[in-house]
Design goal:
By secondary structure, the chain is α+β, with helices and mostly antiparallel strands. The protein is built from 2 helices and 5 strands. It has a 3-stranded antiparallel sheet. Strands 1-2 form a two-stranded antiparallel sheet. Keywords: Signal.
């Protein structure tokens, strides 16, 4: 093997190692951020190896909405407050099936009940 050939092989190996390190760093960054991460790097050339690292990680988006409502009973007040919170969620682009009631607080004043309901959404 000539000196030029050895130098070229060394350069390809060094480039491949750098690309693998970069691919691993990109995949690790995506995982830390909780996003979808798949890093791919390759060198130019006919027999150049391709370094692929990382796997897809599903990202989860969450949101919380709060609504208030009144009713003649505790259940009616909670349902009213939950419906208000769900309408806020729908206005923000969430579907009702992606949300559930996380917590409620009911207070009585006279013959009426006032409730506050917190809705948690996840996709």
């Amino acid at each position: 093997m000539s000196r030029t050939s050895t130098s070229r092989t060394s350069t390809i190996r060094t480039s491949t190692i750098r690309l693998r390190v970069t691919a691993v760093a990109l995949a690790a960054s995506a995982c830390l951020l909780g996003g979808v991460g798949a890093a791919q790097a390759s060198t130019s050339g006919a027999a150049a190896p391709t370094a692929t690292s990382g796997r897809a990680v599903t990202a989860t988006e969450t949101a919380t909405f709060t609504g208030s409502g009144t009713g003649g009973s505790m259940g009616a007040a909670i349902e009213s407050a939950t419906n208000v919170a769900l309408s806020y969620a729908q206005a923000a682009g969430w579907q009702r099936s992606q949300c559930y009631r996380l917590a409620s607080d009911v207070r009585q004043s006279g013959g009426w009940f006032t409730a506050t309901s917190k809705v948690f959404c996840q996709r």
